[in-house]
Design goal:
alpha/beta; 14 helices; binds calcium ion; single chain; binds alpha-D-glucopyranose; Oligo-1,6-glucosidase, domain 2; 27% helix; TIM Barrel
């Protein structure tokens, strides 16, 4: 296994719109980020993935890009961006941009040209097709959008339909046209020449559609997905990106919906990498059906352990995992995998412990380090996210108004997008202005950076401690993974073994006391000593004990 920077690294995700406002307009910006560089540096992180900062009409808040080589004026200027990169690099923090190339905004110059006429030179940058049926009033195929509803939009001007796997303001780029890839290669170069260290590649595995865009199998939830997820041309397209990325030794993490271990190996096997790593979603699907977050069900630790085990074993020694509980598309993990009310702080620390002690690169999403919770707004007017509105419309038909709202409150992406809670001043110290683009979570008076900085045993300080520990001890990074109690409903107990040492991690996922007796694999000769725990007085030696609610302890075998 190669030692590479990203294996030891902890990566932090910033959603710029909600991190810190530097000019009082209620929208986060680069100036705000620069003002918090000390905070980022003290967290101990090695790289930051920035959600899109390019100009965007905000149909999907930055994931609909209208200009790939500029900075969104809401966020600042190119000069400010360059300054930020320089300041972060001075602190040893790498910069990862979000690369959204499955689709553009419908306000992108290419699409504005494309829709002009059927013979416009940009026509083939996108997927245009005649409709079916009399007068072409039915879409060209039966595919559905990730935001629910059909994946095609009729355009009156040229009397054809265009494909959009997401919102209708996000037309899909046509990678059968080689010119499109050449444009993207130039965009990569543009940012890499500015010193950017890599990319998080948005829905990258959707790039390769089946030729002719045939109808999908109607019984699959996302109709047509067999014709665009992990298509046969994926390697070919990724190789074309690599032609540029390789030159700069750039890191990539590819967002990969519904990915499996064999497919991940297809893209990320060491020595033959098309992507450095991928994001899989199984570990954030232990409270829903089929990985569809709207289909909520009760959290199950056994389900979680099972899916984590598949990835831990599946990639070990061949490729490299990513580890995350949260991002800008997920509701807060506190409140899903542990209670948001009873023993919140211990629950958040327990989840932090797992994240920092599995094999892979941990990603922490802004606010997660505070144990932030989902605001679960009651009123639809308080939401901003297009997916939320589209899901609500569909869910209402199936579950009625109340059932729909219940699900939205649980799974809306806006749950992760409320402003970062800096202190207990007005608007959580996020802005000096009166308004914020989305409401602040009212619990900011209780959960915020300032109070958690002062409080020695806060969730924030626990994250700092764990990040430091992980970075100082390669046993955290390079060990194998063995689940020692796969059948336990409440306890997650695993070993990490490597030439650097052995760790035993013991976590009680129940919100109550649970008896623990060390499993056989943890009783081999030698003495295990606690290196960290979320309760101050956890037993220092590994043995029979009663674990308290969300108690989590990391032991190290004395060498
Ligand atoms: C990814 C992004 C999400 C966005 C979608 C379309 O899933 O994480 O926020 O809506 O792609 O770009
Ligand atoms: Ca601002």
């Amino acid at each position: 296994m190669k030692n590479q920077w990203y294996k030891n690294a902890v990566i932090y995700q910033i959603y710029p719109r909600s991190f810190k406002d530097g000019n009082g307009d209620g929208i986060g910006d680069i100036k705000g980020i620069i003002s918090q560089i000390d905070y980022l540096s003290q967290l101990g992180i090695d790289a930051i993935w920035f959600s899109p900062m390019y100009p965007s009409p905000n149909a999907d808040y930055g994931y609909d890009i209208s200009d790939y080589t500029a900075i969104n004026p809401e966020f600042g200027t190119m000069e400010e961006f360059e300054l930020m990169v320089k300041l972060l690099h001075e602190r040893g923090i790498r910069v990862l941009m979000d690369l959204v190339i499955n689709h553009t905004s419908d306000k992108h110059r290419w699409f504005e040209q494309s829709r002009q006429s059927r013979d416009n030179p940009y026509r083939n940058y996108y997927y245009w097709a005649d409709g079916k049926g009399r007068n072409g009033k039915r879409p060209p195929n039966n595919w559905t959008s990730f935001f629910l509803g059909r994946a095609w939009q009729y355009d009156e001007n040229t009397k054809q339909w265009y494909l959009h796997l997401f919102d209708k303001n996000q037309p899909d780029l046509n990678y059968f046209n080689p010119q499109v890839m050449r444009e993207i290669q130039q965009i990569l170069r543009f940012w890499l020449n500015k010193g950017v260290d890599g990319f998080r590649c948005d829905v990258i595995t959707l790039l390769a559609k089946t030729k002719g865009l045939p109808n999908g199998f109607p019984k699959i939830a996302l109709v047509g997905s067999e014709h665009y997820i992990d298509g046969t041309r994926m390697e070919e397209l990724l190789e074309q990106l690599q032609q540029v990325l390789r030159e700069y030794d750039a890191f990539t993490v590819g967002e990969s919906v519904f990915i499996t271990v064999p497919k991940a190996l297809r893209y990320t096997t060491e020595g033959n990498e098309y992507l450095t790593t991928v994001f899989a979603f199984d570990q954030v699907s232990a409270d829903n059906y089929f990985g569809v977050k709207q289909l909520v069900r009760k959290f199950s630790l056994r389900r979680l352990k099972k899916s984590v085990g598949v990835w831990q074993h599946g990639l070990y020694g061949k490729s490299w995992n990513t580890l995350f509980w949260e991002n800008h598309d997920q509701p807060r993990i506190v409140g899903r995998y542990c209670s948001a009310t009873l023993h919140r702080s211990e629950g958040a620390k327990m989840l932090a412990t797992v994240l920092m002690t599995l094999s892979g690169t941990p990603f922490v999403y802004q606010g997660q380090e505070l144990g932030a919770t989902s605001p679960a707004f009651d009123n639809l007017d308080d939401y901003r996210d297009v997916e939320t509105f589209r899901s609500y419309a569909t869910l209402k038909k199936v579950f009625g108004k109340r059932g729909a709202m219940k699900r939205i409150k649980y799974c809306s992406r806006d749950n992760a997008r409320t402003p970062m809670q800096w202190n207990s001043d007005r608007n959580a110290g996020f802005t000096d202005g009166d308004e914020t683009w989305i409401k602040v979570n009212p619990n900011y008076t209780e959960i915020n950076v300032r109070s958690q900085t002062l409080e020695a045993d806060s969730v924030l300080n626990y994250y700092r401690k764990l990040i430091k520990l992980r970075k100082s001890d390669p046993a955290f990074v390079y060990g194998t993974y063995t689940d020692c109690m796969p059948r336990s409903k409440h306890i997650w107990a695993y070993l990490r073994r490597s030439e650097y040492g052995t760790l035993a991690v013991v976590c009680n996922f129940a919100n109550k006391n649970v008896k623990f007796c060390p499993p056989k694999q943890m009783t081999e000769p030698g003495e295990y000593q606690a290196v960290t725990s979320d309760y101050a007085d956890s037993p220092a030696a590994l043995g029979k004990t009663i674990l308290r609610p969300y108690e989590a302890i990391v032991y190290r075998l004395k060498s």
